[in-house]
Amino acid sequence: GENVEQHPSTLSVQEGDSAVIKCTYSDSASNYFPWYKQELGKRPQLIIDIRSNVGEKKDQRIAVTLNKTAKHFSLHITETQPEDSAVYFCAAGNKLTFGGGTRVLVKP
Amino acid sequence: NAGVTQTPKFRVLKTGQSMTLLCAQDMNHEYMYWYRQDPGMGLRLIHYSVGEGTTAKGEVPDGYNVSRLKKQNFLLGLESAAPSQTSVYFCASSYSIDPPGPAYEQYFGPGTRLTVT
Questions:
Q1: Which residues of chain A make contact with B100, given a CB cutoff of 8 A?
Q2: Is the pLDDT score of B73 beyond 90?
Q3: Helix, strand or coil for residue B85?
Q4: How many whole angstroms separate alpha carbon B74 and alpha carbon B65?
Q5: Residues B12, B26, B10, CA angle at the centre, nearest 5°?
Q6: For chain B, what is the mean pLDDT?
Q7: Do A98 and B43 touch (CB under 8 A)?
């Protein structure tokens, strides 16, 4: 089955700086890679996803890059704001195996 | 649309007791999933269903049973609760399970916080 590793487990950034979270996966057949944001006490919500036929995707301050050869993908948040503070999860595989999560804290 | 709903929101059980968690979705999704989330950890798939009347095991199925008698409902049962099953349980649903498809996003319910003492 799929195995997804996510780093770092915690990330503290100054407001306005960029944040980068990296994930690696094991199954070369995986072709869908979503990122979910989970605020404290809330449900996970999709913020961006990328499919294997695309190397990069952007949505305002959020971007995701995918390197299928190396089997890793990354989430980039630019110009971070306090409301970006949350736990972020990457996932991969047909039944979505999730990474362990990254707790992001944006300090004002 | 209510999306994905879960009942109950909170529950405390004693070791050995049984209970059923109900998940309902009104988006006409074929696929439904049950996850558990433990502190500081990601979501782990317990069981899933690819359509009415079907169920399949996920990553951590032991101690749980599921049923999908109606397309819109997915039930998770604990026959004999154990303290190790203390967790937050999330249900999710999606249009398809094999990407890339026109819609694959998983929509999550609000979660059920279960404590087993």
A1: 31-32, 51-53
A2: yes
A3: helix
A4: 11
A5: 10
A6: 92
A7: yes
Alpha-carbon distance of B48 to A95, in angstroms, equals 9
> pLDDT (tens digit, 9 = 90+) per residue, A85-107?
999 999 998 778 899 999 999 99
The answer to whether the beta carbons of residues A37 and A47 sit under 8 Å apart is yes
Q: What share of chain B is helix, strand, coil (3-state, %, to 5)?
A: 5, 50, 50
H/E element, A26: none
DSSP A99: P
pLDDT confidence bin for A1, thresholds 50/70/90: confident
Give me the sign of the Cα torsion angle B76, B103, B107, A50.
positive
In angstroms, the separation between the Cα of residue A14 and the nearest Cα of chain B is 23
- The predicted pLDDT at position A69 comes to 93
What does the pLDDT read at residue B97? 64
B14's CB contacts (< 8 A; 6+ apart) are: B81, B116, B117
Q: If we measure between CA atoms, which residue out of B13, B10, B8, B11 comes closest to residue B116?
A: B13
Are A33 and A89 in contact, with CB atoms under 8 Å apart? no
